[in-house]
């Protein structure tokens, strides 16, 4: 008669935010922990700026935030921070403002740093990025593609 002994080893649970062999990889689940072997988030929701089954991949370049669903609006198409959307040197693309360049210029302004004033016919609101007016009609005394040149 032969007696065999089988031993089954189970990896101990990893500390919160880690998974894989020796708990060597990080997961970024919104709440709760991830599964200790695969890293899959139990709540299936990642922290802002993270994506993937284990929430271990940063957002694709040009996106940030919750579900990587927000678009970066950085100067010269620079990539923003994957979590909070801040741009390098805090420089926003024309037409955008706020700490993470996620807010369009106030109505009546456009361009870099939202520093240009709209001059549209009948006080219509211009496009926040390039200053073009609806139906391309400028207010009296103004001309150019974005009504920025006084006559």
Overview of the molecule:
- The protein has 151 residues and is mainly beta.
- The protein has three domains: 15-58, no CATH class; 72-104, no CATH class; 106-151, no CATH class.
- The protein contains no helices and twelve strands.
- The strands form six sheets. Strands 1-2 form a two-stranded antiparallel sheet.
- A hairpin with a 5-residue loop joins β11 and β12.
- The radius of gyration is 26 Å and the shape is rod-shaped.
- The model has no long low-confidence stretch (mean pLDDT 90).
- It comes from Dreissena polymorpha.
Low-confidence stretches: none
Mean pLDDT, nearest integer?
A: 90
Whole-number total of structural domains: 3
Largest sheet: 2 strands, antiparallel
Q: What global shape is seen?
A: rod-shaped
- For the termini, the CA-CA separation is 107 Å
Class from secondary-structure proportions: mainly beta
Give the C-alpha Rg: 26 Å
Largest beta sheet: strand ordering:
1-2
Quantity of strands, as a count: 12
Q: Give the amount of beta strand, in percent.
A: 15-25%
Secondary structure tally, helices: 0
Estimated helix fraction: under 10%
| Helix-strand pattern | EEEEEEEEEEEE
Keywords: EGF-like domain
InterPro entries: MEGF10/SREC1/2-like
GO molecular function: scavenger receptor activity
Protein name: Multiple epidermal growth factor-like domains protein 10
Defining traits:
151 residues; two-stranded antiparallel sheet
Question: How do the strands and helices of this protein lay out in sequence?
Answer:
Layout: E1 18-19, E2 25-26, E3 50-51, E4 57-58, E5 63-64, E6 70-71, E7 96-97, E8 103-104, E9 109-110, E10 116-117, E11 142-143, E12 149-150
Antiparallel strand pairs: 1-2, 3-4, 5-6, 7-8, 9-10, 11-12
